[in-house]
Amino acid sequence: LEAARPKALKIIISGAPASGKGTQCENIRQQFDVVHLSTGDMLRAAVAAGSEVGLKAKEAMESGQLVSDEIIIGVVTERLAQDDCQKRGWLLDGFPRTRAQADAMAEALIVPDIFLLLNVPD
């Protein structure tokens, strides 16, 4: 019999640039075999896939605007619902960045098991 896989971990990591986030993300990904997700990569993938939310993101990016919280939340929730994230768990890098994004995550019932904040003094 194959051993049952432990519960798929849901992890969020946040920290300032040069806080070691990239290194920690790679360590966590290797140790726990979770899907590493960054909002930038997810936005580019949604645009490339031509999904509805991807087309909205493309429009915002091409016009030089910041991509709205609503669009980013759509991209994130769409990606987290995919099979690999559901089966293996996920490591969300750099999201949420705003209170609105955090509130939207809670409303969508996206709750991490672990929230890592890398706080590096100046």
Number of domains: 1
The CATH homologous superfamily: P-loop containing nucleotide triphosphate hydrolases
Would you give the CATH topology?
Rossmann fold
Number of discrete helical segments? 6
Unreliable parts:
none
How far apart are the first and last residues' alpha carbons, in Å?
52 Å
Give the CA-based shape: globular
Q: What radius of gyration results from the CA coordinates?
A: 15 Å
Structural class category: alpha/beta
* Biggest β-sheet strands, sense, barrel: 4 strands, parallel
The CATH C-level class name: Alpha Beta
Determine the strand fraction and express it as a percent band: 15-25%
Q: What sequence of helices (H) and strands (E) makes up the elements? A: EHEHHHHEHE
Protein name: Adenylate kinase
GO molecular function: ATP binding; nucleobase-containing compound kinase activity
Keywords: Kinase, Nucleotide-binding, Transferase
Family: Belongs to the adenylate kinase family.
Task: Give me the secondary-structure topology.
Elements lengths: L8 E7 L5 H12 L2 E4 H11 L2 H11 L6 H12 L2 H6 E5 L5 H9 L6 E5 L4
Parallel strand pairs: 1-3, 1-4, 2-3
Helix pairs in contact: 2-3, 2-4, 3-4, 4-6
Organism: Phaeomonas parva
GO molecular function: ATP binding; nucleobase-containing compound kinase activity
InterPro entries: Adenylat/UMP-CMP_kin, Adenylat_kinase_CS, P-loop_NTPase
Give the gist of this structure.
The chain is of the alpha/beta class and 122 residues long.
